[in-house]
User: Fold this.
Amino acid sequence: MAFANPNITAFAVEATEFPDLARKYRITGVPKTVVNDQIEILGGIPQDDFIQQALGLP
Amino acid sequence: MSLLSPSDQEKLRESFDHMTSPVRVLFFTQTLDCEPCVETRRILDELPPLSDKIAVEEVNFILEKDKAAQYGITRVPALALVGQDAAGESRDSRIRFLGTPSGYEFISLVQALMLAGGHESQLTPENRARVEAVTTPTTIQVFSTPT
Assistant:
């Protein structure tokens, strides 16, 4: 997604090495995706669903 | 001694053969109080021997604050993947890794290197269009744990 659009930046974060981030984003299971500190996606889901949820599309 | 078995090295070599343009891995690190930085260095050292398209450049997180800020790096170890456009100019992939890229994260790193190196995206054409339509600054963080 980041590669396809210069407005998007993607971070892969190793949760156990950064407990402050894990706490801040309430990481209780992985993978967990957080978009703009607002949208949360739990688990691995199909690409269509992921894009829809991550971008807040209807 | 290599962290990877000979057969894993061979598979990675074949994967990296799909890259059509070079990728620089900017490795943000510090020398003191960062055990994961040492482990990350060991992992990154495995990559350039497997592809002449992959180079690792160390960035001192303490001394090169401007560069860290430029790439949005606020903690270490961290990686920023920088590719090249058709004209040979640097093209920031805006793909970052925070923490040691071991286990599943290593697979993600391999896939990200290939993408930044010109290999085909896994996005479907429909999803690519949806992603390209984003006009506001968007930060995606994917949290994982070593497995």
User: Anything to note?
Assistant: The helical segments of chain B are 6-16, 35-44, 65-70, 104-116, 125-132.
